[in-house]
Design brief:
Residues 282-386 form the PRD domain. By secondary structure, this protein is α/β, with parallel strands linked by helices. The protein is flat and about 100 Å long.
């Protein structure tokens, strides 16, 4: 006999007390009256099958008949709804199953099981996969995608500290999803990582990598190997990392395709995060171009130039790469966070939603759209570069105390570039038209933001909400950007930056129209006949779409110092662009560096390379081919880099 834990509690209470009221049972099981009535109805329906009956007399319930089977009934394990969804997904990936299998395993009705499958199917669709129903239920996805789904399921239900202690008996017994996996693999991976003495990797990243290794061992044991058609090109650092782990796995044998797959995941999660792509052996130009497209599309549709913010490209790249690597499954699409973003930033949320679907050609969960929209919102609120606003403060108080208040306001809201203070007697409608935000310390009728004069900014949350609503219905006023240069007073930075500036040049190259021949002519021009470097140039070169530019970059022992040059080609060449489409280029941006490059030079070249990819205005300047203008741009980039450089 199978009963739920709550049904067994009801049976035990009725047998112990002989008869009980609804109020008594509510105290015992602690659920709503409606849920209790449903449980009682279930007992009335199936108890006769075991020689007993649930009787109701004068609002009291009792059980009559053979009670011998009731006290020793097998209690079904209870599962939370989201927990059930994750477990069902894992089981669907592990094997082909039927609807009745889930009904029996989780003790649920057919409508509930069917609804679970509908939710799972929707989530699979968001990740670009599907669910087959004919001849049994089965997840239709590549092995690469299945492993991502498995790791996402584990990651969503384990904290980082729990991942580091998967051999702990209590953690294993308390996690029903974890119990679907082979425990020996958990111990092997934990031991291998601990023996490998890994440095310079965050606990969170290492935790996720441990899950990828564990899932790889699980799938290899199930004879589900990674597909051979993937042309993984992991970095040497990633290969060394994985080789060290595999050597410490003990009896587990890992073949070369699996090592390449795991190395690729190490690159994605660790070695490719941020930094300077110039010195990497692999760089996903297509992904980076899509991130740039996202920024440009949102900027165009919102009328706000988000590209002026230097942080947003790196933040979006990191977030989206993480999202694609570990999708958030079964997220609550109606939570307060999503509602707040939709309500306070309605237009921006909708623009981001449409742009994501248009550029990446997949569906995104509302939670993910809200998080990405939040990056754009944060850009508006952390500086005045994208949407500078000016403000007016109407008061009847003294200028000294109000001057302190305005500085406090500008600290809280950095996008406010200036605050003019006037007395109430100076107020007129014409004056109001010149300001984006109107603050006041007085009780004045009008669409003003009321603030306290005690400098506490106690109503900060309400002020923030009101300012966001104002920004939703306004466009930035035209303002002249402050182009003040920062003084370079750090000698090492100055000397190394001057080397790059002094070596910058623009040359004409009498080249062949063939791409491979042009590469050879270019390295011969620079006296860099290094065959490894030549092949690297061929494999890593890419064009910048919608321009005449191509970027060639690399490192070599033959390069003596970091250099950036531009080559104007006599004959245009055909090159594959960042968007994977062929394009014509007649101007080459050429960046090279020694194999061992110092931190400062690496940082400066990283800023130059980022400016080529991330900033549309800078790309236009590079396209001009004008030495003086490009030189001034490089000086500006280096100057701005110095102010942010923290050695």
């Amino acid at each position: 006999m199978l009963v739920t834990k709550r049904e067994q509690q009801i049976i035990n209470e009725i047998i112990k007390s002989e008869k009980v009221s609804i109020a008594d049972l509510l105290d015992v099981v602690g659920v709503s009256r409606r849920t209790l009535y449903r449980d009682l109805q279930n007992l009335q329906d199936f108890l006769p099958n075991y020689g007993a009956s649930l009787i109701k007399i004068d609002n009291f319930y009792s059980i009559k008949g053979d009670l011998s089977n009731l006290m020793g009934a097998h209690v079904l394990e209870e599962f939370g709804q989201t927990e059930r969804h994750f477990m069902t997904l894992v089981l669907l990936i592990f094997e082909q199953v039927k609807l009745t299998d889930f009904m029996a395993r989780f003790g649920i009705s057919q409508p509930t099981a069917t609804n679970d499958l509908r939710i799972i199917e929707e989530n699979l669709e968001f990740t670009g996969n599907s669910l087959a129903r004919e001849g049994g239920l089965e997840v239709i996805a590549s092995e690469y995608s299945k492993r991502t789904l498995l790791v996402s399921s584990l990651s969503a239900n384990l904290s980082t500290s729990e991942i580091f202690a998967l051999d702990d008996e209590m953690i294993y017994n308390d996690n029903k999803i974890l119990q679907l996996f082979n425990r020996d693999n958990m111990t092997s991976v934990k031991t291998a990582f601990e023996k490998s003495d890994l440095m310079h990797i965050s606990d969170r990243t290492q935790g996720v990598l441990r899950l990828f290794f564990m899932v790889a061992l699980e799938r290899m044991a199930q004879n589900q190997l990674i597909e051979s058609h993937y042309n993984f090109r992991p970095s040497k650092n990633a290969l060394d990392f994985v080789t060290k782990i595999v050597q410490n796995l003990g009896g587990s044998r890992v073949n070369l395709p699996e090592i390449m797959y795991l190395s690729n995941m190490v690159d994605v999660l660790h070695f490719d995060k941020g930094g300077n792509f110039l010195f990497k052996e692999k760089f996903d130009t297509s992904f980076s171009y899509k991130v740039r497209e996202l920024i440009e599309t949102v900027s165009e549709k919102s009328g706000l130039n988000f590209g002026r913010d230097e942080k947003i490209f790196a933040l979006l790249s990191t977030h989206l790469r993480s999202s694609f690597t570990l999708p958030q499954l079964f997220s609550d699409e109606t939570n307060d966070f999503i509602l707040q973003i939709e309500t306070e930033h309605t237009t921006l949320f909708e623009i981001v939603s449409q742009a994501l679907r248009q550029i990446f050609d997949i569906k995104f969960f509302k939670q993910e759209i809200a998080l990405i929209a939040l990056h754009f919102v944060a850009t508006l609120e952390r500086s005045s570069r994208v949407f500078p606003m000016n403000a007016l403060l109407i008061t009847s108080r003294g200028r000294v105390s109000m001057g302190i208040l305005t500085r406090n306001l500008q600290t809280q809201f950095p996008f406010i570039t200036s605050i003019k203070i006037i007395q109430v007697s100076q107020l007129n409608d014409e004056l109001l038209e010149n300001y984006d935000i109107i603050f006041t310390t007085e009780k004045i009728v009008g669409d003003f933001i009321k603030i306290t004069a005690n400098l506490a900014l106690s109503n900060l949350n309400e002020m923030t909400h009101q300012i966001r609503l104002i920004r939703n219905y306004h466009k930035p006023r035209h303002q002249i950007e402050n182009m003040t240069e920062n003084q370079l007073d750090f000698q090492d930075f100055f000397v190394k930056s001057q080397v790059i500036l002094q070596n910058f040049s623009i040359h004409e190259l009498a080249n062949s129209a063939n791409f491979d021949e042009m590469i050879y002519e270019l390295v011969r021009h620079e006296n860099l006949i290094d065959w490894d470097l030549l092949e690297r140039f061929k494999s890593t070169s890419f064009g910048i779409p919608k321009t005449n530019l191509a970027l060639i970059h690399g490192i070599s022992e033959r390069v003596l110092q970091p250099e950036f040059k531009i080559f104007d080609l006599a004959n245009a060449i055909t090159v594959k662009g960042m968007d994977k489409k062929e394009m014509q280029s007649n101007r080459i941006l050429f960046l090279t560096a020694p194999k061992t490059v110092d931190e400062v030079s690496n940082y400066i070249l990283g800023k130059i390379s980022s400016s080529i990819i991330e900033n549309t205005l800078y790309t236009t300047i590079y396209s001009s081919g004008n030495f003086q203008i490009v030189y001034e741009l490089l000086s500006k980039i280096i100057s701005e880099s110095f102010t942010k450089y923290d050695k």
